[in-house]
Amino acid sequence: MDTNPVLLEIFKNRFSSVAEEMGVTLHRTAFSPNIKERRDLSCAIFDRNGDMIAQAAHIPVHLGSMPQSVRAAIDNVPFNDQDMVVLNDPFKGGSHLPDITIVAPVFASDQRPSFYVATRAHHSDIGGMSSGSMPLSTSIFQEGLIIPPLKIVEAGKIDQKVMGLILNNVRTPAERHGDFAAQIMANVTGVRRMRELIERYSLESVDFYARRLMDYADAGTRKTIRDIPDGVYSFDDFMDDDGIADKNIKIHVTITINGEEASADFRGSAPQVLGSINAVFAITLSAVHYVFRSLANEDIPVNAGSFRPIKVLTDKGSVLDAQFPAAVAAGNVELSQRIVDVVLGALSRAVPERVPAASQGTMNNLTIGGYDPKNSRPFSYYETIGGGMGAGAMHDGENAIHCHMTNTLNTPVEAIEYSCPFLVTEYSVRRGSGGKGLHRGGDGITRQVELLTDADVTVLSERRKFPPYGLLGGMPGRRGRNIIVSDGEEKEMPGKFSIKLKKGDIIRIETPGGGGYG
């Protein structure tokens, strides 16, 4: 079959629109503010081998990890029509336990699925040692319920035994049930739209253009790499600590550009640590792919083809390729940001005019959980908080925005106060926190919350010790700060902490600014 360029463009948009419509279905029908308001979710479609055809413009950190989850589902569970498989195991393609993936097959004419659709959403509790399932853990067993690939829907009906097992291990079962139902319906939407596509154009055509779009993305990525001068470029940065021991954790990368291919070698980085900042390999893969995709000057489809020219090397058992049963809750959210910083830092030696200074370098994870006396039920709140974007060669950094590996919205104050027993007493731009330079780094955010009931609070954050770097003489952004006010006494807290607070206490998060440029 010859490639029709008009049909190629039509299929590029049709595939992405399927994933986008799945995302709309998911966030509009979800129960939790984290999915409904912040849109902490991703939706994608895959071919019969589990290679990604298209992903909606959702969460970059899911770029490399969702395909591995889909392949784990394919390899471990036989699919029949109208089945769906659920999993969250980070060592089987997941990211961290709150990110739950549900995979559905698309059957056409043969005995095996022709395509798959998948949703991933961050559930604000999946059990574990602390509310929100983002603890200062030392083992994955402390972080929540580990779900291997298993059927949650069989022949179109939810398996109530599997659903019951999951809901009996979480603090907010009604909310979780609603979010699971939203993911299932998003998959139903994706399956329906893919079948419509097959009915209109034929299975042969849909499959053919899916493969051609992967080749197109491959060619576009190779062009992006060719525009970078050949050479070897290295960069080091450090994580503040792992939340358990007060020690710096080295992240090293060497980027090699050779014609139209690139490699990112992280060997020589710190070994995996006791605390939860470890990342599984899929997270490292996602961060590297995100950076190279961001350098592209054209609209390259996000699919398996765009990953082909890029090789990622790690030491197994390192902080960038953690092995079971390492604690990994913060690797997805914190270490992923530092991987982006070191890869951009290395590439700044090659193409400084195309690379920004460091952005805030953290997601400022805040989880609050307890019992809501007004509604007579437990609650669990989770949010990541934006910060300053790094400045570039042509512009200042954006203020108060989610940067790099997170692409969520904020949770509106009204939604927080409606859902949870606390008040947001300040939500403002942290003026002056961006680094100075020819172009200034973006300013961070101040978010202050007053508790209306006793609660457990956990914060996982970075850039409280090492500030976001500037480039070409630009100054670093200001470091973040975490503050607790209890009985009128203000206390600055470390970057990672867990604490029991009482009614009337205040949590204040001041997020980092971006680095300056020039």
TrEMBL record:
Domain Hydantoinase B/oxoprolinase, first and last residues per copy: 4-518
Listed name of the protein: Hydantoinase B/oxoprolinase domain-containing protein
GO biological process: glutathione metabolic process
Alphabetized InterPro entries for the sequence: Hydantoinase_B (IPR003692), Oxoprolinase-like (IPR045079)
Cellular compartments per GO CC: cytosol
Membrane-spanning residues: none
Source species taxonomy: Bacteria, Pseudomonadati, Thermodesulfobacteriota, Desulfobacteria, Desulfobacterales
GO MF terms held by the record: 5-oxoprolinase (ATP-hydrolyzing) activity
